[in-house]
Amino acid sequence: MCGCFRKWCHEVEQKEKSPLDNLTTGTAMEIPIFTVDAFTNVPFKGNPAAVCLIENELQDDLYQSIAAEMNLSDTAFITKQNSLDFTSGARFGLRWFTPKSEYPLCGHATLASAAVLFYLKKNVNPVVVFETMSGELMVRQHEESLIMDFPLNTPKPQDQHEIRNLLKAAVGELPIQDVCYSPAIKNLMICLADTCNRSELMSLRPEAEALVRNETTGKIKSLIITVRGTQTAPSGYDFYSRVFSPWVGVPEDPVTGSAHTVLAGYWSEKLEKKKMTAYQCSSRGGEVKLEIRDDGRVDIIGQAQIILQGTLKI
Q1: Which end of the chain is less congested by CB atoms within 10 angstroms, N or C?
Q2: What per-residue confidence (pLDDT) applies to 107?
Q3: Phi, psi angles (nearest 5°) of residue 244
Q4: Is 56:81 a contact under the CB 8 Å cutoff?
């Protein structure tokens, strides 16, 4: 066999390798896995996240393959770091992957991760700390809810003319009051005029392909559309929202904790309130409670339901 042919065969073998080729052959790796509905007190509402408990760090391509297999908006991977186990440890590593890529901040999958530690693993600590791409995130229990200590990403005004085609693709002819941007998590926020209401927000059907086609700079990972709430309504919500993230493989996210780090800053200034209750009105829907802290961060409060537990064998 000539040298050139051997080299070609080697290159083909390398290209055909999958993430599983990096694992030790023989006994399958077993990873505890859970599905948790976040920001809801009943099953099949809120935002489902997969949560994996990882004994030892995996390679990035394997994390991504598992997230693609789960095919939920986010899969969370909790690692023990220096903790002895998931019950007594107070500090863990946490990473989030969409079906397409790793994400820098995810609220609902953090809520889901804490639910697994507190409710299933019976973690004994009053607070657990997650070390993440967005810094340390602390979660504590309070009655039936979990409280997440998150960064506050108050957005800044954005020039509408620069992105007029994207705005058109997002909201059509509905009147816009403000357009703001958060560079920290690459979220663009569109606030509809006060003449709009929840029904008009829910009627929007932006096409994922049109959104992606009109934003190719890489500056936007998620698009938030929001509208003021009606305090006289029985629900009493301060504001409503929807979130679209086709750039990371999520056409519409059901309930988005990270988006509320942006929304909390914006609506707190508009409404002159530090405590707010919001509703993300996707088809599944979910309630998010918010409290602006004196240290410039935000408490994001929600409930979670663990609906599935099993073992991932790879």
Answers
A1: N
A2: 97
A3: -125, 130
A4: no
Instruction: State which amino acid sits at residue 12.
Output: V
Report the chain's C-alpha Rg in angstroms: 21
3-state DSSP of the chain: CCHHHHHHHHHHHHHHCCHHHHCCCCCCCEEEEEEEEECCCCCCCCEEEEEEEECCCCCHHHHHHHHHHHCCCCEEEEECCCCCCCCCCCEEEEEEECCCCEECCCHHHHHHHHHHHHHHCCCCCCEEEEEECCEEEEEEEECCEEEEEEECCCCEECCCHHHHHHHHHHHCCCCEEEEEEECCCCEEEEEECCCCCHHHHHHCCCCHHHHHHCCCCCCCCEEEEEEECCCCCCCCCCEEEEEEEHHHCEEEECCCCCHHHHHHHHHHHHHCCCEEEEEECCCCCEEEEEEECCCCEEEEEECEEEEEEEEEEC
The rounded distance, in Å, linking the Cα atoms of 298 and 295 is 9
Query: pLDDT tens-digit profile of 133-192?
Result: 999 999 999 999 999 999 999 999 999 999 999 999 999 999 999 999 999 999 999 999
Residue with tokens 């992606």: 212
Given a cut of 70, whether residue 70 has pLDDT beyond it is: yes
Share of the chain above pLDDT 90, in %: 88
Which residues are bridge partners to 54 per DSSP? Answer: 79
The pLDDT tens digits for 99-137 are: 999 999 999 999 999 999 999 999 999 999 999 999 999
Distance between CA atoms of residues 103 and 97, nearest Å? 6
Provide the greatest CA pair distance for the chain: 81
Name the packing angle between helices 107-115 and 259-271 (round to 10°): 110
**Residue 30 CB contacts under 8 Å (≥ 6 apart), including other chains:** 311, 312, 313
Distance between CA atoms of residues 160 and 149, nearest Å:
32
Residue 279 vs residues 29, 113, 270: alpha-carbon distances, Å: 40, 21, 17
